[in-house]
Amino acid sequence: MKTADPPLVVVFNIGAGHGQADEVRASLEAGCAEAGRTLHLLEVQDPRQLGAIARRAVAQAQQTGGVVVAAGGDGTINTVAQATLGSGCAFGVLPQGTFNYFSRTHGIPSDTREALQVLLAGKHQPVQVGLVGERVFLVNASLGLYPQLLEEREAWKRQFGRSRLVAFGAGLATLLRGHRSLRLRVESQGQERELRTPTLFVGNNALQLQQLGLPEAEAVEAGCLAAIALRPVGLLKMLGLLWRGAFGRLDEAEDLIHIATRQLAVRPGRRLGTLGSQRIKVATDGEVTWMRLPLTFRVAPQTLDLLRPPAPAPERVAEPRAQPRTIE
């Protein structure tokens, strides 16, 4: 006897995307009805309730053998992934954001109807997850200037709308106002160094790193995280780095420190500088929160069981697993 297809338990952040909630809702209901698939649509009216609704979705999926689905941008996907990791439930994505790095990396279409067909087809693949402390990140996590840039970008988006041009303008405005450096001690593979940097960026998404022009994209594909720290530079060099990043040319920058590793410990520097309270803003997939040092960035021991299109056949012979790069 054929086992019934698992229901889809969808956490739908109606504030994500471009104000097309009614159209997305109609597409999901029509597509599931046509396929004879049960749909449980949990709508998020208040972003502050997203975490609680995500946990409710996981509990419902566990009871029914269902798939937990995040419908929203990278921040929504992050929150639902946080609730899903380690639950035993399969995970799906209906991208509704501006950048959609996670979904694009895994070949999930931005069109809702096409993305729904990926969920209905049911192709599973384990996907690497990053952790900072116990917080999940699928795309990146960061300290220092980058969280500041993200907060400014969100303020600009509320005023001017969502676009890449608005994001670039917000970053430029933040840099022009100035920034302070962090003093950190970072340790990987038993090696430690004192680091003074405006920002520490830890990537877990090969597509984003490729678009920035960073060679660590290959390290992420090989099972590592890509930590990038910026040496202290003046405003003109900082603006130059912003320009290089916008055009995917950060590989040409000489002021970046690169670390490829599965685990990176970050502690306050011996001279605490701006970190006297040992509390610091941390951004995970675009969402900013306060956390307390020391922190550990690591590859999660569990993976997400992602529903995605079948991966294309490899075009080259598989190489040995990349070894973590030591701290330079």
Give start-end ranges of low-pLDDT stretches: 272-276, 313-328
SS-based structural class?
alpha+beta
Shape: globular
Mean pLDDT: 83
DSSP E strands, number: 18
Measured as a percent range, the helix fraction is: 25-40%
Count of discrete structural domains:
2
Q: Major sheet, described briefly? A: 6 strands, antiparallel
CATH class of the largest domain: Mainly Beta
CATH architecture group name of the largest domain: Sandwich
How are the strands of the biggest sheet laid out side by side? 7-6-17-14-9-10
Work out the helix count: 10
What fraction of the residues are assigned to beta strands by DSSP? 25-35%
And the CATH topology of the largest domain?
Tumour Suppressor Smad4
Computed over alpha carbons, the radius of gyration is: 20 Å
Order of H and E elements = EHEHEHEHHEEEEHHEEEHHEHEEEEEE
Describe the overall structure.
The protein has 328 residues and is of the alpha+beta class. Strands 7-6-17-14-9-10 form a six-stranded antiparallel β-sheet. The chain has helices at 21-35, 50-64, 74-84, 101-105, 112-121, 145-160, 164-176, 206-212, 217-221, 235-246, and strands at residues 8-13, 39-44, 67-72, 90-95, 124-127, 130-132, 135-137, 140-144, 182-188, 191-197, 199-203, 225-230, 256-261, 263-268, 279-284, 287-292, 295-299, 304-307. The N and C termini lie far apart (59 Å). The protein is 33% helix and 30% strand. The radius of gyration is 20 Å and the shape is globular. The chain is built from ten helices and 18 strands. The model is unreliable at 272-276 and 313-328 (pLDDT under 50). Helix 2 packs across helix 3 and helix 7 runs antiparallel to helix 10 (235-246). It folds into two domains: 8-122, 3-Layer(aba) Sandwich (Rossmann fold); 135-301, Tumour Suppressor Smad4 (Sandwich).
